[in-house]
Design goal:
It is a single chain. 20% of the residues lie in helices and 32% in strands. The strands form 8 sheets. It has an 8-stranded mixed beta sheet, sandwiched between helices. The longest helix has 23 residues, at 3-25. The protein folds into 4 domains: 3-100 and 467-712, Alpha/Beta hydrolase fold, catalytic domain (Rossmann fold, 3-Layer(aba) Sandwich); 110-156, no CATH class; 158-256 and 279-302, Methylamine Dehydrogenase, Chain H; 367-443, no CATH class. It is α+β, with helices and mostly antiparallel strands and 716 residues long. Helix 1 (3-25) packs across helix 2 (69-87). The two termini are 37 Å apart.
């Protein structure tokens, strides 16, 4: 850091902390608390040299939660105190927004029951309770209710509670489930006897988010995570035995790969899925023979991805092998599934990307994408005839729901759009008729006809057309004076389809336009769309977002003084990069659990997920990638300029994006920001990557975000 900042910050370090605390407690003899002063992080330069280039990190100490925890926690608490002080005048407004948002949800509600065997399984919410209650009824929904698991009871006296693995045994007598009480996504695995309500004594710690039963109803498999949060070991446990004696079935030693475990829909096989960002390997085992040896389907080959499904005596395989970049479907005999026996069933198509399959006794459902929109294609396996399920709106989001009944002629899916609330359908694959099983109620008088959705395209510098989905209240005038909330992500091939949000109504009813950008690096427009926004093409994600913002201003949807942007996790990296590149284009920015300290994280293999992430961002130990990544890393490219209003939200127990990324980013921005816009850091001291676990706490977080940006725009 420049000397002019270093001396100033070291002098103000303790003063900043004391001032922030003084705001809350007041000062004796004063009738009014002094205006809040922001915390100023102390400067302790840490110097690294890479490829002849010196990099200085003045705030490295903020990651030393162990050896320097007192100072770290003092700084985080001071930032929270400062945020509370700056936003204190909006407390009533936050409560108003919270009540608005909460008032649109049906607080006591029931999910659509799913039939498994003789039981109908469902979950329900009760007014005033933070968590779901999982239930079932035997025979019909008129039967007496059995409570399988009440998460509210598990959460009593705890600040955080998240449910991980949740698997009912094949005979429906046992529940295997995992709980996370910190937000670090390391689960405690237990078994409940559903007939007696008693808990089995054995408990397994440090489990990842998946586990599965074998068909004998006493053996289950689970995966353990290493220090880098990578699921790397698969164990087999038998009920009634000591977990210390569980059998290690498989260990993945390549730090670029992780493992998972599951079972086929027809209950014939167990799978070990082994994968990196670009390469897959599957092994299978007869589910009736849990002590047997898992066999290979196809050994890993760099760049070859595949997923496996079972039907009859064949494996159905979705793969990108042999340059099928949008994927194709192959079949292989389940007794000899090696790649030499793979035969093509559904060819690769340039215009359609295949994402996955759902197998039924007489039907196959293909999930894919065409022209940037979701596609569901039904194939009658007795006639080989196929048809696409049609949807009523020009832009929408659809995904498969729970379809555990292998013999069913119905496929259940969930549909929504920017104006249509989430709707669950049962679709007859035989008659092509559909039935609405449940449409999420939006209370408070919501009428979809009062709102308008559209899809537009911004043109990137290289001519690429970037899709933007918009929704707003009818009557909006394109005069350039509308506030606009623009969301972006653009990483990992993830798809941001047009989704419905009842919270969003609070913005639209205040005149906001809501925009979802489909940037390169996402997967909306096919596999190449993803490839053109990762590794050495990553800057396309940022310039696409900027081009979208410029387009929306040029087309008079909004103007830079009313443009709000938001992104979380890798989307937080997007926000950090674009406010470095074009701070003048945005008035307000919100970054949630932001991955902004790219270089320090990707150069430290001890941090969770680092090695796995090489295939997304690049390996900075290679000079070409180091130079490129360092040229856009948000933390490393902060400069002396006026930044937009900025709200940074982090979580102390986040294992995906460490809390210190947001903390260090805030500290460095304070040193370089030449403007007087708000710069706030809010750290959730008892949660992980997803924020608060309780549904009301989560809604309050949304209300706080909305209050922040509305306050910055003078709309409160």
């Amino acid at each position: 850091m420049d000397e002019r900042f270093a001396m100033r910050q070291n002098r103000l370090w303790m003063l900043g902390l004391l001032a922030a605390v003084a705001v809350t407690i007041g000062i004796a003899g004063c009738t009014m608390a002094p205006p809040p002063e922001p915390p100023v992080a102390k400067v302790e330069p840490k110097v690294d040299t890479m490829f002849g280039e010196e990099r200085v990190d003045n705030y490295y100490w903020l990651r030393e939660r162990g050896s320097d925890s007192a100072n770290v926690f003092a700084y985080l608490e001071a930032e929270n105190t400062y945020t509370d002080a700056v936003m204190g005048h909006t407390d009533d407004f936050v409560e108003e927004l919270f009540q608005e948002i909460k008032g649109r949800i049906k607080e006591t509600d029931l999910s659509v029951p799913v039939k498994r065997g003789d039981y109908y399984y469902y979950s329900r919410d009760e007014e005033g309770k933070q968590y779901k209650i999982y239930c079932r009824k035997k025979g019909s929904m008129d039967a007496e209710e059995e409570i399988v698991l009440d998460v509210n009871m598990l959460a009593e006296g705890k600040e955080f509670m998240s449910l991980g693995p949740y698997e009912v045994s094949p005979n429906h007598k046992l529940l295997l489930y995992g709980t996370d009480e910190m937000g670090n996504e390391r689960y405690k695995l237990q078994v409940k006897n559903l007939e007696t309500g008693e808990m089995y004594p054995e408990v397994v710690e440090n489990v990842s988010s998946n586990a599965t039963w074998a068909n004998d109803n006493k053996t289950y498999f689970y995966t353990i995570v290493d220090d880098a949060w990578r699921p790397y070991q698969l164990y087999r446990h038998v009920l009634g035995t000591d977990p210390e004696k569980d059998v290690l079935v498989y260990q993945e030693d390549d730090e670029g790969f992780w493992i998972g475990v599951g079972r086929t829909k027809d209950d014939q096989y167990l799978f070990i899925g082994i994968g990196s960002k670009t390469t897959d390997e599957y092994r299978y085992l007869d589910a009736n023979n849990p002590t047997g040896k898992f066999k290979m389907i196809r050994a890993r080959e760099q760049g070859v991805e595949y997923s496996v499904y079972h039907h009859g005596d064949k494996f159905y395989i979705v793969t990108n092998a042999d340059d099928a970049y949008n994927f194709k479907v192959m079949i292989a005999p389940d007794r000899k599934p090696g790649k030499k026996n793979w035969k093509e069933l559904v060819p690769h198509l340039d215009e359609v990307k295949i994402d996955g399959l759902d197998m039924f006794e007489n039907y196959m459902v293909t999930y894919g994408r065409k022209d940037g929109l979701r596609l569901l294609r039904v194939t009658d396996m007795t006639t080989d005839e196929s048809h696409d399920i049609e949807f009523p709106e020009a832009t929408y989001s659809v995904r498969g729901a729970s379809n555990p009944d292998f013999k069913s002629e119905l496929v259940r899916f969930t549909y929504m759009s920017l104006t249509t609330p989430q709707t669950v359908y049962d679709y007859s694959m035989k008659t092509r008729e559909r039935e609405v099983m449940k449409k999420r109620e939006v209370l408070g008088g919501y009428n979809a006809d009062d709102y308008q959705a559209e899809r537009v395209f911004a043109t990137a510098d290289d001519g690429t057309q970037i899709p933007i989905s918009l929704v707003y209240k009818k009557g909006m005038v394109k005069d350039g004076n509308n506030p606009l909330y623009m969301y972006g992500y653009g990483s990992y091939g993830n798809c941001d389809d047009p989704w419905f949000s009842s919270s969003r109504i609070s913005l639209m009813d205040r005149g906001f336009i809501y925009a979802i950008t489909n940037l390169r690096g996402g997967g909306e427009m096919g596999r190449k769309w993803y490839e053109n926004g990762k590794m050495l093409n990553k800057k396309n994600t940022f310039t696409d977002f900027i081009d979208c913002g410029e387009y929306l201003c040029e087309e008079k949807y909004t103007n830079p003084d009313k443009l709000v942007i938001m992104g979380g996790s890798a989307g937080g990296l997007l926000i950090g990069a674009v406010i470095n590149m074009r701070p003048d284009l945005f008035e307000v920015a919100i970054a949630s659990v932001p991955f902004v300290d790219l270089m320090n994280t990707m150069l430290d293999e001890s941090i969770p997920l680092t090695v796995i992430e090489y295939e997304e961002w690049g390996n900075p130990n290679i000079e070409e990638y180091y130079r490129y990544m360092n040229s856009y890393s948000p933390y490393d490219n902060i400069t002396s300029q006026v930044y937009p209003h900025l709200l940074i939200q982090s979580s102390l127990n986040d294992t995906r994006v460490q809390y210190w990324e947001g903390a260090k980013w805030a500290a460095k921005l304070r040193a370089y920001n030449t403007g007087d816009n708000k710069l706030l850091l809010k750290t959730n001291m008892g949660a992980g990557h997803g924020g608060s676990s309780g549904r009301y706490d989560y809604l309050r977080e949304i209300a706080f975000e909305y209050a922040f940006m509305l306050d910055c725009l003078g709309m409160n």
